[in-house]
Design a protein that fits this description.
This protein is α/β, with parallel strands linked by helices and 1016 residues long. The protein has 47 helices and 28 strands. It folds into 7 domains: 171 residues, Uridine Diphospho-n-acetylenolpyruvylglucosamine Reductase, domain 3, CATH 3.30.465.10; 124 residues, Alpha-Beta Plaits (2-Layer Sandwich), CATH 3.30.70.2190; 93 residues, Alpha-Beta Plaits; 142 residues, no CATH class; 28 residues, no CATH class; 148 residues, Glutathione S-transferase Yfyf (Class Pi), Chain A, domain 2; 115 residues. A hairpin with a 5-residue loop joins strand 8 and strand 9. The chain is globular and about 95 Å long.
Length: 1016
């Protein structure tokens, strides 16, 4: 039985007292000290792990001022902070042993925009893509780009001076910051902007905390101007952390202290708001994908491409390309990066041109095409082919693939995974090819695998060697390589950190700056933060501080992961493979990725958060000498003794006995089991899979809630209830039952059974009865006409018209529909972690479905979540016992048959709107296009709607504890398009989606097969 798990990492009394003092001082935000909340921010996208003492989510600037002001008290001198945004840093920039101040949950408002003067003012928690989505209708965008733009916050971009693709023209974040609203370590507020020398002198004369900061910063930068210019290389991606050079304009007449704060990783002040320069969106964009016979050829050709007046030149090596080809993202770009006949493509340069003059851009493209054609004809520069696109959607898809490359590198086979620690080196572009060749020699000398991609126009290349951080020896290898890369970049006139900041690489700062200039950094730190409270150990320490800088040798996640036995790690790859890339934090409400993370704003309720909690849970189990796999085997079965023990444990849990397992269960219970993570996450973190396994073990210690038993038995109950649907509906459709259902079962809005039932609905039709023995006697031609409709418990019993209409459509298309007698699928059992029951259900279903498949009879189902369960969860639970049967979804079958049909006469009708089930469109990314093709074949038009999760997801939306989140998710992306459309032409593929629209939208949407039936 699962033991109780204590956490020895409890928030220190000093921090607990501080949390109480915050509330007393009027703090309005959230204060979290639970172990699970702290673990959720203990990692970022780096190899490091540091559990903080607390996580604070301020709601206003006043909250941030209170955070720092209260900490100035003598009794709180030891309190430390680190500001955090999206948590996408690759070098542990926001990790801290103190308090994480997370701006991303509440401080995410776009405050003001001025299109005449080209600026926008935002709070620190605004996500970069969120801002650009707001600006797009106004004709502007915030131009610094980065691969994590759909979850990286503006505050994080400011703190790391972020940049990426297009920096050659658009520069870095600091080039677009007009002013900052900050809070100093003592709680005072400071506004930064470019100021004249007279204005600076006036501030210094005030003799307050801001005056001291200005006086020190001005003298450090002005008095050492010549040394600064002589020391730092002239690079597009020059990044020091404290930008001593660019605080002054060219003639030294103006001074902007914000340039020191931008890139300071929160070590000087907490940025709460930013006024940013915005750029008009180019009127025309074009992209060339240039293909090469080697990665070296791609690198050496880059300078010529930059000279072609390109906006940007991005590169991708063959390893990253091959990883992309194995991911769902490749479906969206495969037609844009086709293979070259008879050639092997080992490198790719993505070259973008943009501007306001179509003629000018076209001329630049044509000139480059002429040179590329010569290269191909004369076999020069390694160019083997190219493709051009002017289509904006195609350009965005290509960059989407390139951005996902960061995460894709983590999705490799084996224990060693490509990791970030020396992957943003910057050297002069003309030195890049030679630098990379020597870099490769270094990695090859360690016999390491690695992938490469980056911004070769700026001399920045991302190189991620594959290492197993659970192996102490390979952890030492990381240190050795890191030291050698520092020396290598210096040799080629570059620097170690061209894009991703210092973080745990801060120890290299003194070597890069030199003793004298590094002393100036420490002077500046002393003026801003004399007590070293702001992200201590990062970049530098105050002059009189004895504290050390953080080191590359800091404690890593691998230190904790290696405490989990190898056999356990290997049995739960979804848990251990999570590399913290944070794609599950995608802000976009139209994206299906992790709805629970979107609606709660709680990092625990994300694939990354849940994987992190699960790893720690496994580690604590191992610390007690308990084997998770053994627990899984022991969890099966029932006895009176185990029931009694579970009852006692459940009572103890309710009266306050701590068990970390309860914190893990709290996070797991918020998962909608939509499985978007299983396909959308670059490393395929499958939360529903390990949630089910955790739940099975968890309930070996605690009593299951009654609602779980209800859900697990729905497939056996529904057929019986459907025998008397009107009576059952009368029983449940009243106020008394609603109260009982909510209070006892924990369910709301109980759905009503279909009247008439499916059985009665098809009784009058002359459909063939299911007869397996009889089917075996049919000719091959007769069996080819058979289509067996596989029922699911929700559509068949609660939306029966869909199934009957589907059968009518099959008949109308010249086939012979057969309704397979209902048999449980098991999906509800899996969702609730009844894995022993699920395995039996899956085996029984598989046996029958394999018998049908052996007769080569087509099988189809109508609901994606149930049909895809046959393909995914059945394989997980049964492995080879599953067999080779295949159940198709409606669009998959229709796509096959129309290929052999004569197209009907073209018709002209209103455009249908398609609202796709999130599981379907993430697991089967071509599904929406297939539906469009099918409708077009029959002379109809179909427009897929850009929506995320509807918020229902099986029974999730009916659980009282999740009702508010379910309704909130519906409002996020479904409510507006559903309300504004014509119900007669709105279609939804998912039963749960149709149920949610009926509940909150007061509309009854049809399945696409029903629309087709009405026209055939």
């Amino acid at each position: 039985m699962l033991p109780r798990l204590d956490s020895t990492d409890i928030t220190l009394p000093l921090y607990q007292t501080y949390a109480k003092a915050l509330k007393k001082a009027g703090f309005k935000g959230d204060i979290e000290t639970s172990y699970s909340s702290r673990l959720a921010v203990a990692t970022d996208n780096s190899v490091y792990q540091q559990v903080p003492q607390a996580v604070i989510h301020p709601k206003t600037v006043e909250d941030v001022k209170i955070i720092n002001a209260v900490a100035t008290s003598d009794k709180f001198q030891e309190i430390k902070f680190s500001a955090r945004g999206g948590g996408t840093g690759t070098n542990g920039q926001s990790l801290t042993p103190g308090i994480v101040v997370d701006m991303s949950r509440h401080m995410k408002q776009i405050l003001e925009v001025n299109t005449e003067q080209h600026w926008v003012k935002v709070q620190a928690g605004v996500v970069k893509d969120q801002l650009n989505e707001f600006l797009k209708p106004l004709g502007f965008f915030f131009s610094p780009d980065l691969s994590t733009s759909n979850r990286a916050t503006i505050g994080g971009m400011v703190n790391t001076d972020a940049s990426g693709q297009g920096s050659l023209l658009y520069g870095k974040t600091s080039d677009h910051v007009l002013s900052l609203r900050c809070v100093l370590a003592n709680g005072d507020e400071m506004h930064t902007e470019s100021k004249s020398r007279d204005e600076v002198e006036a501030i210094i004369a005030r003799q307050d905390s801001e005056a001291k900061v200005y006086q020190t910063a001005f003298s450090a930068c002005f008095d050492n101007r010549e040394k600064i210019l002589a020391k730092f290389p002239r690079l597009n991606r020059f990044l020091t952390g404290y930008d001593l050079e660019n605080v002054f304009n060219d003639d030294l007449s103006r001074f902007d202290i914000g340039r020191l704060i931008t890139g300071s990783e929160g070590s000087l002040a907490m940025v709460t708001e930013a006024k940013l320069n915005i750029t008009p969106i180019p009127k025309i964009r074009a992209l060339l994908n240039i293909k090469y016979d080697s990665f070296e050829s791609a690198l050496r050709h880059a300078p010529d491409l930059v000279k072609a007046n390109a906006l940007s030149v991005e590169t991708v090596d063959s390893r990253v390309l091959n990883l992309a080809k194995s991911d769902v993202v490749w479906y969206s770009v495969s037609d844009l990066i086709t293979d070259v006949a008879g050639k092997v493509m080992d490198g790719l340069n993505i070259v973008e041109f943009a501007g306001d003059s179509e003629q000018e851009v076209v001329e630049l493209i044509e000139q480059l095409q002429l040179r590329l054609n010569d290269n191909i004809e004369q076999q020069q520069q390694g160019v083997i082919g190219y493709q051009v696109t002017y289509d904006l959607a195609s350009i965005n898809r290509l960059y989407g693939m390139r951005k996902k490359a960061v995460g894709l590198l983590g999705n490799t086979e084996g224990k060693a995974k490509p990791i970030a620690f020396a992957e943003d080196t910057a050297v002069p572009p003309e030195n890049l090819a030679d630098f990379i060749l020597e870099f490769r020699q270094l990695l090859d000398s360690y016999q390491l695998d690695y992938g490469m991609f980056g911004h070769i126009d700026a001399g920045v290349l991302h190189v991620r060697p594959a290492l197993d951080m659970c192996d102490p020896q390979q952890e030492q290898t990381m240190r050795e390589i890191s030291d050698q890369v520092v020396a290598l970049t210096a040799k080629y006139g570059g620097l170690m950190w061209g894009e991703h900041g210092k973080g745990y690489r801060s120890e290299y700062g003194p070597e890069f700056f030199g003793d004298e200039l590094f002393m100036q950094l420490r002077r500046i730190k002393s003026a801003f933060d004399p007590l070293n409270k702001m992200n201590p150990g990062k970049i530098c320490t105050p002059l009189d501080s004895t504290e050390q800088l953080v080191s590359v040798d800091g404690v890593k996640r691998g230190f904790y992961d290696r405490q989990i036995p190898v056999r356990i790690r290997e049995s739960l790859p979804s848990v251990t493979n999570c590399n913290g890339n944070g794609l599950c934090f995608n802000f976009d409400p139209k994206s299906p990725m992790c709805p629970s993370s979107k609606i709660t704003g709680d990092r625990r309720h994300s694939p990354k958060g849940r994987a992190g909690l699960m790893r720690e849970w496994l580690r604590l189990l191992a610390d007690k000498g308990v084997d998770f796999n053994d627990l899984s085997r022991q969890a099966k079965g029932f006895s009176i003794k185990s029931l009694a023990i579970k009852t006692v444990n459940s009572v103890k849990g309710k009266v306050g006995q701590y068990d970390f397992s309860n914190e893990v269960m709290e996070a797991m219970s918020g998962c909608l089991a939509c499985k978007a993570c299983a396909s959308q996450c670059p490393v395929k973190v499958d939360v529903p899979e390990f949630k089910a396994r955790f739940s099975e073990v968890y309930y070996s210690r605690y009593l299951r809630p009654l609602k779980d038993h209800f859900v697990s038995n729905i497939e056996s109950m529904a057929p019986k209830m459907a025998m008397l649907p009107s009576l059952v509906n009368l029983t449940v459709d009243n106020k008394l039952f609603s109260i009982f259902s909510k209070q006892v079962l924990g369910y709301v809005d109980t759905p009503l059974l279909s009247v008439p039932s499916l059985k009665n609905n098809i009784k009058s039709h002359d459909y063939r009865k299911f007869d397996l023995a009889g089917f075996a006697k049919l000719t091959d031609e007769e069996r080819n006409k058979l289509v067996v409709v596989v029922q699911d418990p929700f559509t068949s019993f609660y939306d029966a018209e869909v199934v009957s209409d589907f059968m009518a459509l099959i008949k109308g298309l010249g086939f012979d529909p057969v309704l397979l007698p209902f048999m449980p699928n098991g999906k509800p059992q899996h969702v609730k972690g009844f894995l022993e029951k699920f395995a039996k259900t899956a085996k029984t279903s598989s046996d029958l479905l394999n018998q049908i498949a052996q007769l080569d009879i087509t099988m189809v189902g109508s609901d994606a979540s149930l049909v895809l369960c046959y393909r995914d969860e059945y394989k997980q639970i049964l492995a080879d016992e599953r067999g080779d049967f295949e159940v198709l979804l409606a669009h998959e079958w229709l796509t096959q048959i129309i290929a052999d049909m004569d197209q009907p006469e073209q018709k002209y009708l209103p455009i249908y709107q398609l609202f796709s089930h999130c599981t379907e469109k993430t697991a089967l990314p071509a599904s929406e296009q297939h539906w469009q093709t099918i409708f077009e074949f029959f002379g109809l038009k179909l427009q897929p709607m850009a929506v995320g999760c509807c918020g229902m997801a099986g029974t999730y939306g009916h659980e009282a504890s999740h009702y508010d989140n379910s309704k909130g998710l519906y409002k996020l992306s479904w409510q507006k398009p559903v309300a504004s459309g014509d119900t007669n032409y709105q279609l939804a593929t998912g039963f749960s989606c149709r149920s949610q629209v009926k509940r909150f939208g007061q509309k009854r949407l049809r399945h696409p097969v029903q629309a087709l039936l009405s026209h055939i």
